[in-house]
Amino acid sequence: MIASRALKGLARIATARLSLLAALGLLVAACQPHEPNPAIQADTGHLNAWYSGLMADDPYDVPLVNKALLDRKFHRQRVDYPGREAPGTIVVDIDNRFLYLVEDGGKAMRYGIGVGRNGFAWRGDARIARTGVWPNWSPTDNMRRIDPSLPVHMEGGIENPLGARALYLYQGSRDTLFRIHGTNEPWSIGEAVSSGCVRLLNEDIVDLYNRVQVGARVTVRRGGLGA
C-alpha cells in the first residue's frame, strides 16, 4: 500500500487535470501532463492499484508501480541489441515505445516509454548536457499562453510532471527543450500522449539516471532500430 502522503498527491494530480481538461478541452506541448485515463478519474482506490510500495529516495520516496498492470514488454529488462552504437549511448525508438541504453557485448537495458501524441516532435542526435534530481518545472511561455492556469514555476516533487529525474537534451550549446524524464502517470507508458518529451516510470528513470553520464549521446529515431 502506497504511503498516504504520496497517494494523496497522486489523487490531487488526477482531480486537477480533470478540472483543467473540462475547462480547456485541449492539451499543450512539451512535458505537459496528458489527459488521464477516464477509468482512473480521481478514484483513490484505482490510483492505489497502480502502486505496490515505495523505493527509498531523497528527498521523496519513489512510488513503485504494480507491474501486473503494465504490459510485460514495457518492463525494464536486459535484451539483445543489434545496433552499432557505442556502449553508453541512449537510443529512443519512438514507434515501438522503447528506450535502449547500449551496453557491452551486444546487450542493452531496455525501458518502456511514453512519447508525444503525434510522435516525438524532434528526432536526431543530441547529448545529455545536464541532469536533475526531483527537478523543478518551468512551462515555456508558449505553454502558458495556451493555458494561463499553468504555474510559472513548479518545485520538484511527487506532483511534478517531470517526476523523479530528468535528463536534458542539448545540441551543441542549444537546449532542445526536450527531456527524458520520469512520470507520475504510469498508465501512459507505451502510449503516444501529449506532444512532448520521453517519459519513463519514476523507478526506471532513477535506474537510467544511475547508469548514464553527462555528455552521453542520445539518438531519437522513428522506424525501429534499423532506421
UniProtKB/TrEMBL annotation:
Name any one GO molecular function.
Answer: glycosyltransferase activity
- Mention any Pfam family matching this sequence: YkuD
Give the pathway annotation. Cell wall biogenesis; peptidoglycan biosynthesis
UniProt keyword Lipoprotein present: yes
Domain of life, per lineage: Bacteria
Give the residue range of the signal peptide.
Answer: 1-22
Keywords per UniProt: Cell shape, Cell wall biogenesis/degradation, Glycosyltransferase, Hydrolase, Lipoprotein, Peptidoglycan synthesis, Signal, Transferase
L,D-TPase catalytic domain segment(s): 88-221
* Gene3D superfamilies for the chain: L,D-transpeptidase catalytic domain-like
Q: Which GO terms describe its cellular component?
A: extracellular region
- One GO biological process from the UniProt record? peptidoglycan-protein cross-linking
Q: Where is the active site?
A: H181 (proton donor/acceptor), C197 (nucleophile)
Q: Which InterPro entries match?
A: LD-transpeptidase, LD_TPept_cat_dom, Transpep_catalytic_dom
| Family per similarity comment | Belongs to the YkuD family.
What is the designated name of this protein?
Answer: Lipoprotein-anchoring transpeptidase ErfK/SrfK
User: Which species does this protein come from?
Assistant: Saliniramus fredricksonii
